[in-house]
């Protein structure tokens, strides 16, 4: 709950700041579109916990950004993305060689981001922060499993063949990066973290898990070009 509260406070401050700047800032009408792609480093928050390794998967999609004002040195706007994102988790056990399990879940994710940047408005470098809510829709999932899991009764396996109960995912995402602005477009590198507030398994009192939610670290590059300046 503390993490959720912290994210909500951060988003509230950003929303308030953006609204305040819109009233007194220098107006901008910069609309850009482009593409993005990168890798996810995935894990799932389970309760009871499940031992996991790193699962690296792809993500890519389209980006739309509108810059609305500049307040002193801060460039303020909003960004919308529509992304394909493969998420999930993997299990492997040093003490039990031969056991392996991987669950891959394919989502269409839509983050709604406040965009705050500092730096050159023309050619040059900008440093930026993106943060906001994200929703996602599960389109498919699959798993691979190997080893004699039935031989080890002390391992948690309820998650292995369980169907996904909740295909709608939502949470909070945020990150920071750098943008190189050139005459042929804008090139970005960004690191971002997604914290799911929803569970993809049923987590009522009668269910085995009380928490089953995504946590995703993404490293992405993007290319944007201006449609309106």
The helical percent reads 10-25%
SSE order in H/E notation? HEEEEEEEE
Tally the structural domains. 1
User: Could you say what the CATH architecture is?
Assistant: Beta Barrel
Which value, in Å, is the CA radius of gyration?
20 Å
- Tally of contiguous helical segments: 1
- Tell me the number of strands: 8
From the helix content, strand content and strand pairing, which structural class follows?
mainly beta
Termini gap = 42 Å
User: What is the averaged pLDDT score?
Assistant: 90
CATH class: Mainly Beta
CATH topology: Porin
Uncertain runs: none
> Beta-strand percentage?
over 45%
Explained architecture:
The protein is mainly beta. The chain has one domain (2-228): Beta Barrel (Porin). It has one helix at 2-24; strands at residues 26-47, 55-71, 74-92, 100-119, 124-146, 168-182, 185-196, 211-228.
What attributes characterize this protein structure?
229 residues; 10% helix; 1 helix; single chain; mainly beta
SSE diagram, text form:
Blueprint: H1 2-24, E1 26-47, E2 55-71, E3 74-92, E4 100-119, E5 124-146, E6 168-182, E7 185-196, E8 211-228
What is shown here, in short?
With 229 residues, the protein is mainly β. The protein has one helix at 2-24; strands at 26-47, 55-71, 74-92, 100-119, 124-146, 168-182, 185-196, 211-228.
């Amino acid at each position: 709950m503390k993490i959720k509260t912290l994210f909500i406070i951060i988003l509230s401050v950003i929303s308030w700041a953006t609204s305040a700047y819109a009233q007194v800032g220098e107006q901008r009408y910069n609309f850009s579109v482009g593409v993005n792609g990168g890798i996810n480093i995935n894990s799932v928050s389970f309760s009871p916990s499940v031992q996991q390794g790193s699962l690296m998967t792809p993500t890519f999609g389209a980006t739309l950004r509108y810059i609305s004002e500049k307040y002193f040195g801060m460039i303020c706007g909003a960004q919308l993305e529509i992304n394909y994102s493969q998420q999930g988790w993997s299990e492997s056990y040093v003490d039990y060689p031969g056991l392996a399990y991987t669950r891959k879940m394919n989502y269409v994710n839509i983050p709604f981001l406040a965009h705050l940047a500092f730096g050159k408005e023309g050619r040059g470098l900008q440093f930026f922060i993106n943060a906001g809510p994200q929703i996602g829709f599960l389109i498919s999932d699959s798993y691979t499993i190997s080893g004699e899991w039935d031989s080890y009764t002390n391992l948690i396996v309820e998650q292995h063949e369980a169907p996904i109960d909740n295909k709608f995912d939502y949470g909070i995402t945020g990150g920071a990066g750098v943008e190189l602005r050139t005459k042929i477009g804008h090139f970005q590198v960004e690191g971002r973290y997604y914290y799911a507030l929803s569970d993809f398994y049923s987590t009522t009192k009668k269910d085995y898990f009380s928490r089953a939610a995504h946590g995703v670290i993404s490293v992405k590059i993007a290319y944007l070009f201006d449609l309106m300046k």
